[in-house]
Amino acid sequence: MKNGKLNSIRPSIFSSTHSSKPFVPQDHNSAPVENNSPLYPPTVSSIASALQHYINSENPSHGQKIHSYILKIGFKPNTNISIKLLILHLKSSCLSYARRLFDELSQPTLSAYNYMIAGYIRAGKVEESFCLVRRLALCVEKPDGFTCSMILKASTFDRVLSLPRSIGKQVHAQIVKSDVEADDVLFTALVDSYVKSQMVNYARRVFDVMLEKNVVCSTSMISGYMRHGSMEDAEEIFEKTVDKDVVVFNAMIEGYSKSIETAKRAIEVYINMQRLDFRPTISTFASIIGACSVLSAFEIGQQIQGQLMKTVFFKDIKVGSALLDMYSKCGRVEEARGIFDHMPEKNVFSWTSMIDGYGKNGNPNEALELFNIMQRVYGIEPNYVTFLSALSACAHAGLVAKGKRIFESMESEYKMKPKMEHYACMVDLLGRAGSLNQALEFVAQMLEKPNSDVWAALLSSSRLHGDVEMANIAANELFKLTGDGRPGAYVALSNTLAEAGKWDSVSELRELMKVRMISKDTGFSWVGIDGGLEGFHAG
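RESULT FIELD:
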């Protein structure tokens, strides 16, 4: 921010498009105001009272007849009534009426700005809200705590791609500079903005100066720390949160569920929250099922499914998709298909999970059949992950021609530009089938520079077929890209050379690894025990 003013986001799209003529809101549901109405004869007090009545009612749109009435009789509303009319239109979801009324105000007050900005944000029109923020910053009125909290809330919307990541810092600077009175709402919005901008250290500084740390703010901090892998910091805040609710428990469960090293803790938190009489929500079930998936603990997953069946959440598409993904990753494809078939509603994520489950559990033909049914029978368009699952199934089934058609259909039928993962999958498909020269030619024809995953796929296939020359080409390209970042590539090339009996080359490669101080990763295996998995190192 410069000179105490918010940075310009975008020129206002309303600057010259709004008519200065008064407008009459259309209302087809309500009768006109009669002479025996409490509004007759109209006074400032009676109109203000009537408007407030409708603003507080369940059907605020019925109050729009008052606006029509006062325009018809030529009544000139004061600022208070104009703002009440603006609120009425906003609560009636008539954003265009509210904006025209706002533009007709000779000098909009700060409250008028705040109501209008909040209305745009609630309607998802974030860019328009920032246009008003810019206009506010240039006028006599100055943003207050509510304005700043709205700006911060808007800045966290995923669809706002044009905003700088430092918007939270800019608003924070404005708060300090303008001596804005900060309350819990503003502090919470500031913490949330920093967290979602991946600036957790700044969020923590704000959090630490709060006199009373509410559960919403604590939850935001926990989520931020979990995303950054700072488990101890998240646990510290969780333990210090006095008035815990189900949302803060959900944040802990979700954070723990992402990693195999911590997923078991997710189950412990899940059990503890129920001992404290907190009932799981859809988010709770989705996260804890994800933890079971990571741990391959399908027995626990079955118990959770039993709990789910007693709730209204069982038929929810989010929970159903999580269950079938869990069973698929635990190798229980039949149970996964049972969940899939009984889902009352399916989306592309449900289909993708089932296709991927078949492919990764040795049923490529079933995966491809489902891929075809999804498109031809149900008309559901695949996403990037769906294509990846289908290509992987083709690779495992050795269906080269089929894989090529699926890859080409991404652009020809769905206008989707293949990502590097799809190219790597195609190289794997060709390589597994023994067409190593075709795979190399495919890499050479790529429009983008191949990444390490592409060359790793070619190296793996070269080792599979004992092609030392091709393995050398792939490994050298891989070394250029990753240096010592992929010790597995050196090991794969070494093994390929050893299997071909080229022991001198093996010795040279191992000497090179010593010079570059590259060591083979320690072997690591997961062994299933009661309640999950335990990891064991070897070597």
